[in-house]
Design goal:
The protein is mainly alpha-helical. Helix content is 56%, strand content 4%. The chain has a two-stranded parallel sheet with strand order 1-2. Helix 4 runs antiparallel to helix 5.
Length: 113
């Protein structure tokens, strides 16, 4: 099972990526509740490992999609997401997908009915 995460970008929905101040606070245990720290301790999970995991997740979700922007922008963002999907599946799928992407425009028309 392959998962490719994307950040949905809309004017009313803002995601702020953690900055170094957040990571420092996390490493020091200040960004978590006492119960959370106790749970991590019981499970043998170091705060440095939590920081690494959060950084890794943030790297994965750095692929944007903006449904409110123009069709050209949406198409470019979808192509980037699809490239990430293809590379997660296999190099063969990646090259096959490149051919499909370059030869067929994507449609973002709203269904009517």
């Amino acid at each position: 099972k392959h998962i490719v995460a994307a950040v949905i970008q809309r004017p009313d929905l803002v995601f702020a990526y953690p900055d170094e101040k957040f990571y420092r606070s996390l490493r020091q245990g200040n960004a978590l509740k006492r119960e959370d720290l106790d749970l991590l301790n019981r499970e043998g999970i170091a705060l440095e490992d939590v920081e690494k995991a959060v950084r890794a997740v943030c790297q994965l979700i750095a692929c944007p999609f903006s449904p409110h922007k123009s069709a050209n922008v949406r198409q470019a963002e979808v192509v980037d997401i699809l490239k990430r999907c293809a590379s997660a599946w296999s190099p063969c799928a990646s090259s096959a997908l490149r051919g499909v992407i370059s030869s067929q425009p994507l449609s973002f028309a709203s269904p009517r009915g």
